[in-house]
Predict the 3D structure of the following.
Amino acid sequence: KILSFSLEVDVTDTQKARRDYSVEHEATISLTSLIIKACTKAIEQYPDINTIVDKRKIHYFDQVNVGLAVALKEGLIVPVIKNANKKSVEIISKESQELSDNGRKGQLAPDDLTNGTFTVSSLGMVDSFTPILNNGQSAILGIGRTQNKPVVVANEIVIREMIVLSLTVDHQVIDGAVAAGFFRRVQRYLEKPK
């Protein structure tokens, strides 16, 4: 019923673009926000990823409401960035930070926790993990920590900033080939951010 995939992704260029943008615009852009944006762009080509199952029916959505897993002492909460597919990376980054901060302060409104259609969970303390689907949702992406690693590029060994992403999907809703196609598209966006 559940399928899990993982990919090691080169985020060197994405991290450079993120840092340059943050300096030029005096705005903090997180890597997680860029990954969320890459996911929303990939969902345009793979809409099966952006579904929920309710009473054995599959519901498709035009809006991509991205849940962002936030760890609290009491447990995990998942506030939702509504219509993330229509927002800039800067707005996604700002809303992510506000939702996380409000969650830690116990100041989230009930509406902040509803209507998620896809979730992203970041555990920067581990290399990789298998994220668990949120109730009803068909897909979740897990983000591990970034590390500088030796990688072969054009037959040369170079140091690149790498990250492991993990994707868990409900195989009753999402075919393995669709999930793999979506995942490769996310990888492509992150490795070639321009």
User: Anything to note?
Assistant: The chain has a mean pLDDT of 93. The first helix runs from residue 12 to 25. Residues 1 and 172 are 6 Å apart (CA to CA). The helical segments are 12-25, 31-45, 89-105, 176-191.
